[in-house]
Amino acid sequence: MKIRLTQLTNSLNIPHMKYSRLLTAIMMLTGVLTACSDQENEQDGANERTALSINAGIGVIPAGTSSATTRATDASWQANDAIGIVMLDTGTNTVTEGKTNYRYITTTGNGSFTPDGKEHTAYYPTAGAQVDVLAYYPYTTTISAGSLNIPVDVSDQSNPAAIDLMTAEKVTGRSSKAPDVSLMFTHRLCKLVLKVVKDETTSDVTLTGATAILAGTATTGNWNLITEKLSTEGEARDLTLPLSADGTIATAIVMPTQAGDGKSITVTTADGKSYTATIAANLALAAGTVNTYTMTLHRNQANITAGITPWTDGTTVPLESLHIEVPADATANGLTTFEMWRNQAQKTDTRIYTFSNNGNSGTGTWTATPKPFYIEEIATTDHFYALHTPADDRKDGLTGLKDFLAAGPASLQSSATGSIANSLSLNFKHLMAQLTVTLAPGKDFPTGVSTEGATVILPEMISGYTLDGITLTADDTKKTGYKNITVTSGRTAILTVVPQTLSQGTEISVKLTGGNTYKTTLGKAVALSAGNKTSINLTISPTQTAISVSVNPWTDTDAVAQNITIEGIETGSATGSYESADKDLLVLTGTNETIPTEKYTASYIYNKVNNQWNSNAPLYWDSFSQFAAAKAKGGSADAAGDNTGNADSNTPCTFRFDALITPAVTPTEARIACGAVKDYLQGSLTATTFGTPLSFRLSHLMAQISVTLKPGIGYTAEDLSQNVTVHLYGLHTLTDEGVETDGTLILSKEAASSPLKMNKAAEANVEGNFTYTALVAPQTIVQGNLVARITLTAQEADGTTPVSLNYDYRAGSNGFVYRAGQNNKLVLTVSKAGVSAVFTLTDWDDSQEATEGDVTVD
Predict the structure, then answer these.
(1) Among candidates 96, 176, 81, which has minimal Cα distance to 133?
(2) What are phi and psi of 394, to 5 degrees?
(3) Same-domain status, 406 and 512
(4) 148-155 average pLDDT score
(5) Distance (Å, rounded) from C-alpha 679 to C-alpha 657?
(6) 3-state SS of the chain: helix, strand, coil percent to 5?
(7) Domain containing 516: what range?
């Protein structure tokens, strides 16, 4: 008997209880029929597929509300909204059964979604296999099958709902046994609401027909369903925000933007007036948020007819439009008189205008001598020019130049009928350039070195010019080396200068009161333009000692230098020409030999990735005195502190530097207790002049010992390649004080109680012999004492009993000396009749002829 099982649905309008009983009866019948014949109980899987049942909601985001209908403000669905469904094999990124994208719709907007046709029905796999469910809105056919990227494009704001990207958190582990899927969607873009309002100064501005632009924002990108990340693509562009008909509100879906990106919004009225506001640097357009910005349009009324364009640029008020610039009261800035003429060719007919405030601050009138320009004599084509020449007492104190102000060409304002009006607006601009110089100590600059009262030495600059009407032209044949500027830390010096360009490579120096002079050159040409304020910020950076190290007998390398100098001294980093290990430690001590109280120490850690020695507090030349202080009056001691009374203010100081490298690789505590040591490297420099790059040639402080075993009578190389140990005896160890930077070693008073086992080389030499090595502190083993013991473990003739044979080497009449920086070699020939020994003392990379010695057999 074959039974066909299908899903049952209550499609006959049977009352629920009756329907349940009917379903129970059918299930019981199915069980009975199944029991009749196990062999015929085969299920038809093709008609058993279970479809996903989708219910979805929308998370409410923090926002105010607006009238615009988008999913970004409505926490409910609209009728016929369509979402995309993607099924993955559970726990993987593999699309289930090769179908990438299913379209589900909610016909009533109640959040219950059904497939949009048979081809879009998502079925669970058979046999109870589990899947993970991904979902997104709005549905698109352009989803990438391979990477599961959803294209995002907000450039068209005509239908915000169509670009309001939302995705649901992945639902995992669903199957035909649990077909219902509940999805909660989250907004992935940002909603921007712009409200445009007017104040009393712009009440006459018509906003109908206005446009709004969000400048410099990304408009296209991709959302990846797997990584849940949004990536932008293409160049930033201006985005038109859809303003309402009355121009008072705009609603848009935009890409999220980080704080500090400096985005701005510009509103342009139908008659061409533009108002721009910059979004504050601390505000971000975060994903899933509604951001409401109120932009207030404002303008200033003209209250007098003359103003000065300021040195600095106009400011932008966050979330408020830029003020429309109109002439403002300039008398407080010293503009109380100017000469004016009509047309450049008629400068001979010049009138002098003088301002009088009539005793009231902020108000007053302009009067002219010998007479004003009368309206009746002015033609509509006339243009006016004006020049303000400061009084002599307002010259720049350093350069001696005057800050000329000029206006024009300006024409009379016309009325609506086209007749000549009786007002003239003059906007004065600076003809000279302004240069500001600031001085500040840089990061890590030594706290004991003061920058107060430092002198800034400027380069030679153009000081001559010609003035024709309101046109000022620099005369590059006349140059001046201006007086030095004395400034304090953080203080700004302001100079009026002739417009010119400081060429690339122009040198500027700073001399501290302590005597050190710092120099810098311009990395590019700097234009000092008329009406512009150019700032040169001088940061005094500490000058590191340039250090290079090498190890005898290897060759030196030059130090890598930086570009900051003290009187031509290059700052440098520490480099090495030997094979350092990562995190090796370099300790550098510098002592002023002329002023011994000046002693500084710095530590450097080796970084193998970039082959550099790095330090959080490097050694700086700035910390040292370059010259000895003058002898104190009335006493025998001098300011140098050495109490010799011989210091001379013209005597350069000399310096001693000690370098010690401690390897990061450390022997075990057990081996250290037996006499093992690190390969310490040390070097010293004396009588070093100020600023000299420090090139150290380091030497090994420890001694190296190697023992090579050669087969003699009765042994082969193979016999000596195994079951052999070599130990060193009577070694003194380094104390906890260890090694000082000048190379002084501090050894234990007593020899180690246990011998040091030597390390066997991994490979035999060309003759098949093995060598054993160890690194120990320099010392001497006295005559007759045991130096090394070779232990061979062999078998008795019966082949079962192990026998240990010890071969001892003892110090001769002159003792045995472990010499620092040298390889102390023992070549031992082992025979069943005895051992012969050859002793060699070499540098670590040299080879020498061996000398013979005596050994005894224990």
Answers:
(1) 96
(2) -110, 15
(3) no
(4) 93
(5) 20
(6) 5, 45, 50
(7) 433-540
Q: Is the pLDDT of residue 43 over 60?
A: no
CA dist., res. 153 & res. 165, Å (int): 10
CA atoms within 13 A on the CB side of 139: 19
Residue with structure tokens 């040409």? 525
Does some domain include residue 305?
no
Residue 809: pLDDT band (50, 70, 90) is confident
Amino acid at 737: E
Q: How confident is the model at residue 630 (pLDDT cuts 50, 70, 90)?
A: very low
DSSP 358: T
Could you count the other beta carbons within 10 Å of the beta carbon of residue 780? 15
Tokens of 165: 């990207």
The total of other beta-carbon atoms located within 10 Å of residue 153's CB is 12
Beta bridge partners of 529: none
CA–CA gap between residue 403 and residue 394 (Å, rounded): 8
- The alpha carbon of residue 690 and the mean position of all alpha carbons in its chain are separated, in whole angstroms, by 34
Q: Which of 338, 343, 270 has its CA nearest to residue 305?
A: 338
Peptide bond into 125 cis (omega under 30): no
Determine the 3-state secondary structure of 357 from DSSP.
coil
Q: For CA atoms 477, 481, 485, 491, give the dihedral sign.
A: positive
Contacts of 320 (CB under 8 A, 6+ apart): 277, 295, 296, 298
Q: Which of 142, 154, 163 is nearest to 217 (CA)?
A: 154
How many Cβ atoms sit within 10 Å of the Cβ of residue 114?
A: 15
What does 535-564 look like in DSSP terms, one character per residue? Answer: EEEEEE---BPPEEEEETTSPP-PPPEEEE
Regarding pTM above 0.70, the answer is no
- Does residue 487 share a domain with residue 356? no
CA distances from 241 to 166, 219, 270, 290 (A): 21, 12, 15, 15
Number of domains into which the chain is organized: 7
Nearest residue to 404 (alpha-carbon basis) of 332, 459, 337: 337
CA dist., res. 295 & res. 55, Å (int): 41
Q: Which residues of 24-43 are buried (b: 16+ CB within 10 A; e: fewer)?
A: eeeeeeeeeeeeeeeeeeee
Helix (H) or strand (E) holding 25: helix 16-36
Q: For the chain, how far is it from start to end, CA to CA, in angstroms?
A: 96
Q: Are 379 and 412 in contact (CB under 8 A)?
A: no
Whether the CB-CB separation of 727 and 756 falls below 8 Å is answered with yes
> What's the CA gap between 307 and 301, in Å, rounded?
13
Which residue bears the tokens 């009975």? 32
567-577: b or e for each residue (b if 16 or more CB lie within 10 Å)? bebbbbbbbbb
Residue 316 falls within a domain, yes or no? no
CB burial readout 88-104, b (16+ within 10 A) else e: bebeeeebbeebebbbb
Q: Which amino acid is at 175?
A: S
The residue ranking higher by pLDDT, 493 or 750, is: 750
> Which residues are CB-contacts of 488 (< 8 A; sequence separation ≥ 6)?
439, 451, 452, 453, 454
Longest dimension (CA), the chain: 141
Q: Residue 317: inside a domain, yes or no?
A: no
My answer on whether 530 and 551 are in the same domain is no
Q: Are residues 589 and 693 in the same domain?
A: yes
Q: Which residue has tokens 């050859």?
A: 838
Which tokens belong to 298? 């404002």
Q: Residue 310: inside a domain, yes or no?
A: no
pLDDT at 199: 81
Q: List the 211-217 sheet strands across, edge first.
A: 237-241, 211-217, 264-268, 274-278
Whether residues 709 and 802 share a domain: the answer is yes
* Shared-domain flag, residues 446 and 581: no
Q: Are 738 and 748 in contact (CB under 8 A)?
A: no
